[in-house]
Design brief:
Strand content: under 5%
Shape: elongated
CATH topology: Four Helix Bundle (Hemerythrin (Met), subunit A)
Low-confidence stretches: none
Number of domains: 1
Number of helices: 4
Largest sheet: none
Mean pLDDT: 83
CATH architecture: Up-down Bundle
CATH class: Mainly Alpha
């Protein structure tokens, strides 16, 4: 049973990382297409709308998966370490990642209602910033500190 929880926790975390990585890629493609169109390149702007919707889908899915991974990870930590929180560098990094994406989704919710023409670019930039934070969070797995090192 404990290994099943560990597997579920790991799969949820990996799935959230994939979603956030896809959001970063989608955001960079959105910015690239936007720059080409603003420079006068002919191309359907429907791809911009699709990229924006996909970016939103990746961000929301990743956030929900990361939240579920944090809950299952806390249950696992309680079982193995005797506490829900052990101030592990990976846990701190994951909390920071979760807070970053919660702010990103709040910006999406607020700006999506007011300034639709700029929300795509801002969301794409935030997705790229989140992608960098995601890379740092993944690298925390390989630090020989705390409970989450995998080397």
């Amino acid at each position: 049973m404990d290994w099943n929880r560990c597997l579920i926790h790991a799969m949820l975390a990996i799935a959230s990382y994939v979603c956030f990585g896809l959001a970063a890629l989608s955001g960079s493609l959105y910015l690239y297409l936007g720059r080409k169109i603003s420079q006068g390149a002919e191309g359907p702007t429907i791809f911009m709308e699709i990229r924006h919707k996909m970016n939103c889908l990746y961000l929301v899915s990743g956030f929900l998966l990361l939240s579920a991974a944090m809950v299952t990870g806390a249950m696992r930590a309680q079982r193995f370490w005797g506490s829900y929180w052990v101030a592990d560098p990976k846990q701190i990094g994951t909390i920071l990642l979760w807070l970053y994406y919660s702010v990103t989704l709040t910006v999406l919710a607020v700006m999506g209602l007011k300034k639709r023409e700029r929300v795509g670019s801002i969301l794409s930039l935030l997705s790229l910033g989140g992608g960098l934070l995601l890379i740092l969070n993944i690298l925390l797995n390989y630090l020989p500190l705390g409970q989450h090192h995998f080397l």
